[in-house]
C-alpha cells in the first residue's frame, strides 16, 4: 500500500476521504483498518442516555452533511448510522474488526503493519486510533480494598444502575459533569471530587477563543509532552442544566480524597464519605501502543509533532491527537495529513 489508515472514527474517515480525492484507490493504494465491530468510531460505545441533542459540537464529515437527525435518539445510533452511510457513499471499504498489533520498520523504507488479518507494508501510515481504548485509572492507596463497585466512563451505561446508591464521581471534565447530573437524579447521594477547581465558562466561545485554546494544546505536542484535552484549557460551558444543578448543591465540589477505604473514600484531614460506587470519569490517553516499536515518544512522555507529522518519522501522521482531538479538528487533520502524504509519495516513488 501507499498508505494505511488505522482507525475509522472521524479523523480516519476524513483522511480516507481526502486520499480518495487525491486519486488513491481503496484496496489498491490504501486500506482503512478499524478494530471496532461496526461503523461509528468511539461514538458507538457511548452510553444510551447521551442523546444526539446533548452532543456538544458534532461537526459533519467532509463531503456529506448530517441532516435531519432526531435529537432524542442515542448519539451512538445517530452517528453510527451516519458513519456507515458515509463509508458506503465514498466506497471506503473499511476492514473490520481488525486489530493492529504493531507497526515496525520494514524493508526498503517501508513500514510493516502487523494485524489480525495479516501484515501490510506501506510507505505512509495515518494513525487515527483516538483514546477510547485507553481509559485512564488513577491509583490511590486502598483502592483494591473497596467493597463497592468501581467503574470508568468507558463502562458507564447510564444512571439507572446507580438508583438508590451512594456514588462518588471523580473527574472535572465534560463526562464527569454529565454523569454527575444524571446520577444525582436517581442516587441516594452523590459526592463530586476533582483534582483542580473546575473552571466554568460563561458567554460565547468564538473562533478567536477556540484558536487560542487549540494553540495551547498544540504547543505541548510540539514540545513532545502528552497532550491535554482542549476542554482543560477552554473550561466547562455553563449550561442551564448545570446552573440549576449548582443551585441544588449537586456541583459542590471536594478536592480528591487521599485514599480509598473498604466503605468509601477518606481525606487526611479526617473527612470520610461512605459510598456504594466510585465512578472514575478521569479521561483517556492516546492509544499508541502499537507504534511502540518505532520509538516515537520523547523523554517527556509524548510524541513530538509538526502539524500532523511525527518529528521522529515523517512517514507517520497522527490525526485526532492533541490539538486535533475534536470533530472539526479531526476533519482538518485528515486533510492536512493527506497533503503531506502526497508530498512524501511524490518525493519517494515506489520501488519497482
What does this 3D model show about the protein?
- The chain has 352 residues and is of the alpha/beta class.
- Helix content is 25%, strand content 21%.
- The chain is built from seven helices and 19 strands.
- It has a six-stranded mixed sheet. It has a five-stranded parallel sheet with strand order 7-16-8-9-12, with helices on one face.
- Strand 13 (259-261) and strand 14 form a beta hairpin.
- Helix 1 (10-21) crosses helix 7 (327-347).
- The longest helix has 21 residues, at 327-347.
- The chain is globular and about 65 Å long.
- The two termini are 13 Å apart.
Count every helix, treating DSSP H or I runs of 4 or more residues as helices. Answer: 7
* H-E string: EHEHEEEEEEHEEHHEHEEEEEEEEH
Helix content: 25-40%
Secondary-structure-based class equals alpha/beta
What is the overall shape?
globular
Please report the total strand number as a whole number.
19
Q: Spans of 5+ residues with little confidence (pLDDT < 50)? A: none
